[in-house]
Structures are given as C-alpha cells and as structure tokens.
Amino acid sequence: MSIKIEGLQKSYRSFQALKNINLQIETGLFGLLGPNGAGKSTLMKILSTILPFQEGKVSIYGHDLVSEGDKVRQLLGYLPQHFNVPSQFTGREFLHYVASLKGVSNLQERKNQVEKTLEDVNLIEQANKKIKGYSGGMKRRLGVAQALIGNPKFIILDEPTAGLDPSERIRFRNVMERLSKDHSIILSTHIINDIESSCKNVAVIHRGEVLFQGFTELLADKAKNVAWELSVPFSQYDKIEKEYVIISSRKEKDQAVFRIISKEQPQGNVRPVQPTVEDGYMAVISRVMS
Ligand SMILES: Nc1ncnc2c1ncn2[C@@H]1O[C@H](COP(=O)(O)OP(=O)(O)OP(=O)(O)O)[C@@H](O)[C@H]1O
C-alpha cells in the first residue's frame, strides 16, 4: 500500500472539515470527487504536509506524514488549487528553478527533465515567453509541469484540468496514464469524465466524509435501479426539477426529457436506464442509492 490514511480528522476552529477519513491508495491514478466545499483541497493540503490536522495517522510509502515530513516532501509533487507563479520568469526558467529546488543538481539531467516536462504539457513553443503573458490554461499546465519535475513518486494535483480545453485535457490524461504505471497520483476534479476515463480507483467525499471508495466502474453500480429517463410536458419542468435529483435534461419536440435519480419509479412516461459513473456519483452524494 503506497498511501494509508486512518481516522483522519481536521477542524478549522469549530468547523469539522474532515471526519474520520480512511483511505488506501495504491500505485496508479486515484480520483477524488466531491462537490464544492466537500473537503478535497483540505485533504490534499494535509497530504502535501502544508496543513496540520488534529487526529489520525497518515503513512506515505512507509513514512509517517507528521514525524517524517521531510522524507514525505522528497517524494512529493504538488499542484495546489490556486497556483501562483512569479510572472517575470519564462516557463523554462521557472521549471529549471523548481528542478534546482527539488535537488536536480546535474545540469544535463535538469535540462532533460525540463524539456521532457515542457513537451508533456505542450508548452515547448511558449517556454521562452514570460509567464505573465500566459493564458489561464497555459499557467495551469505550467502548474502541472512543476508538480511533475524531479520525478516524484507521489503526485497530488488539485483540479489540474480546470480551464483546460478538451484537447489539452486529453493530452493531460495520456501523460497521467503513462505516469500511473509507477507513480501514485491523486487528482481532484469536478469533471467526472476525467475520472471515468483514466482513474482505476476513486473516492467520493461529501461534507468531510468518504461516501464511496473503490473501482471507478463500481461507482456506476450505486445508481443501479435508481436511474431513469422521464419525459414530461414542458409545463412540468419546474415541478420535476424540485422533485428529483436531476442528472441532465434535454428538449424533444414539446417534451422535456430528464435523466433523474429516484428510489421509487416515477409516474408517467418513464424508462429505466443503464447507470453511468456520473449517475452513481449523484446517487452517492444525494444518498439516493439502490
Ligand atoms: N482556512 C479555512 N478556514 C475555515 N474554513 C475553511 C478553510 N479552508 C476551507 N474551509 C472550509 O472547509 C470545507 C472544505 O473546504 P475545501 O476547500 O477543502 O473543499 P473542496 O472540496 O476543495 O471544495 P472546492 O471543490 O469548492 O474547491 C469548506 O466548508 C470550507 O469552507
């Protein structure tokens, strides 16, 4: 087991942000899903040793997070949710700087790593431009790059794909897939598709609690027998929205067609549907499970 979290509790003053978290994370890509305010960033900050916690035990590749923080940091690459870079640097200069800080002292080795990482995040063409001229997506990709520099065994990425266009998201996934063979990578995202197509294991966290952990495809099973497609006249749109957990809706002629989660079979023009990972996620966080 690469990462073991036992009985982790974190409070900000009187507010309990993480409640008795127990997670086991192996080599590979691990997805952390949860709505806004669930506690994902709090957990990631704790794992990256920058935030203290009150209760529990965390072990990273056999090192205790608290008493062996220095050893853990040597294994770590971290992209925080809000990542600011010195804007006067060029992308290439910045990555050389990060590589030096991470102890890559051999110049040739540093060059190799920086160029490979720039390629991975598709920033070769912009590498000699000052960061202040980068777009939001380019800055995010540079953020991912700095987390990968130094070849850390344990990589924590807090919303790495936020602001990336679809082709860059696909590129990101391919790089993660390559790294997942011999790294432990935890990534948080709101984009279920990112998790579905690349993470073998996932945890769903909501209001500071882990509500699901396991194989990603098993998350879909949580919506077994509770996922429906319901067609209603357009006039009933608001009523349905209030009554059910809605996954999506579309217009078909004069009908509104809803994909919903409901324990009871709804009345009317309805049919059961094969649940997706997104259905499972919504079923878990709304606690409407089969
Ligand atoms: N420094 C802080 N002081 C007090 N409360 C905090 C602090 N940081 C976070 N919180 C609270 O802890 C809870 C979890 O926040 P966290 O940022 O970990 O959620 P998240 O899952 O990352 O959310 P998002 O998806 O919106 O980024 C929220 O209710 C948040 O308001």
TrEMBL record:
It comes from Virgibacillus pantothenticus. Keywords: ATP-binding, Nucleotide-binding, Transport. The keyword Nucleotide-binding applies. GO terms for molecular function: ATP binding; ATP hydrolysis activity. SUPFAM superfamilies: P-loop containing nucleoside triphosphate hydrolases. Pfam families: ABC_tran. This is Uncharacterized protein. Belongs to the ABC transporter superfamily.
